[in-house]
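Re: the multi-chain job from yesterday

Posting the exact lines I submitted so nobody has to dig through the queue logs.
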Amino acid sequence: MTFKEFKATWTPIIDSYLADHLKSEVNDTKISQIMSYSVMAGGKRLRPLLFLATLDAINSKINDEEIRIACGIELIHTYSLIHDDLPAMDNDDYRRGKLTSHKKWGEAEAILAGDALLPMGIKWIAQGSNSAKLVAIITEAVGPNGMVGGQYLDIDSTNNKSVADNSDFINKMEWLKTGCLIKACVEMAVEHGNASPSQKELLLQFAQDFGRSYQIYDDLVDVVETSAEAGKKTHKDLESGKNNTLTLLGITKSRVELNKLIAHAQNCLKDINSDILTGFLDLYKKVL
Amino acid sequence: MTFKEFKATWTPIIDSYLADHLKSEVNDTKISQIMSYSVMAGGKRLRPLLFLATLDAINSKINDEEIRIACGIELIHTYSLIHDDLPAMDNDDYRRGKLTSHKKWGEAEAILAGDALLPMGIKWIAQGSNSAKLVAIITEAVGPNGMVGGQYLDIDSTNNKSVADNSDFINKMEWLKTGCLIKACVEMAVEHGNASPSQKELLLQFAQDFGRSYQIYDDLVDVVETSAEAGKKTHKDLESGKNNTLTLLGITKSRVELNKLIAHAQNCLKDINSDILTGFLDLYKKVL
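And the result, structure tokens for all chains:
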């Protein structure tokens, strides 16, 4: 199966699971609506697909339980977007071409929608896997030593010129913000699907490269695409005093760095022999 | 052992565990400091103590793993206080006699401190229990059908006179806001400590009564105590247009209701024979 076919098979299944279960498992209609608004706003489902593709790469079955875990990851990712967009954070009005949650529903509602999606996502992962280990992986990845830690460093260093050329700081911040959660998708699949030690090592290295690439890709989208293409305000990082790989290296060197990471990631997959996982790396072509 | 002795034994152990592990398990010193500021602000540790006391009541051992679970609950409780105090929510400047997190550190920092404490608390529960079931209990209790759902109903109904005399709505809102998490402490202990079916039934009924009482108690504190006694602004609910049991029933009838719940809770404990759990109900004496 190609990456395209895999994506075409599983994306509608993920989408319906999310829509159906946000309706059936949230008692209050209005809260359900506010949560669904952001979850069903047309995300690429990259993280759940990555979890499922990793399972596929190690010949592990995808049943309803695995879809529940995959969709739990998407709930958590959506929570992070809602909170990142808040006025006190990045203060964004649009996301994926639609009004952000706080613009649509109000600030308290947006904070609470995020606060509702996070534990619900973790619950789905716990129930789908019946594994405290998977819960430990995901909570570590989105906690103070992961995604939230990265978001804090981002907020704390915005308009702080002293870190603008500190590549260690910027690498660390971008890894925490984006890489950790992406790596956790692969790590949970490796754990859940009982990968062999050698598969595990290669897949985790692939995840490391893929996660790091993703943030550079996202920074490049900000300058390469128009707002209409990206579905959100672009050319914004530089204006708002954000420090990232792009402001550190510039466009040309960022592309070189991204190409290097992709080549390394591809190399990890040589012995795994998964066309589907390799296909994830084509995503980056549009900014190269 | 009496409730007083139990509390005097375990409170310092909970306090040191929290202080030590927020330091050793959070990599970034500044984030650790912001999280610790609120966690170490002098809370009564009611929820972790309730978890431990329930274990004790069913003769289940308290080791390091159980302390980790108990402290995980406290992290989650603290997250909820930080987010409830935010400008977009209850907009409180003081909590437990100290500046609230957003007043002390800034709004983005407070949102992120909460966002860091929630997954970290869940992680501690997952690791201490090695049980996906406990994770499902806690995440259900604090998600859209629990605490966050209650907070949403509270925000949504503030200054809405049409619900002011709707006792079903108010009971539901207060149960979700406060009762759910308190009940989850008992439910996790019952599950973790393998209570017998009859113990389980009695303890869950006790938890139901205790959880419901706690919100009425908290509403009464708002009118009965001065700000100095309560460590936060009091006489605030009525001013800010909040609907709760107290605005519904008035002081006298709220006290009657609270006494009724306490009597019922005490009755559940008759056959459990736990002086320690019974002692929790004395907490309410100061508002009766």
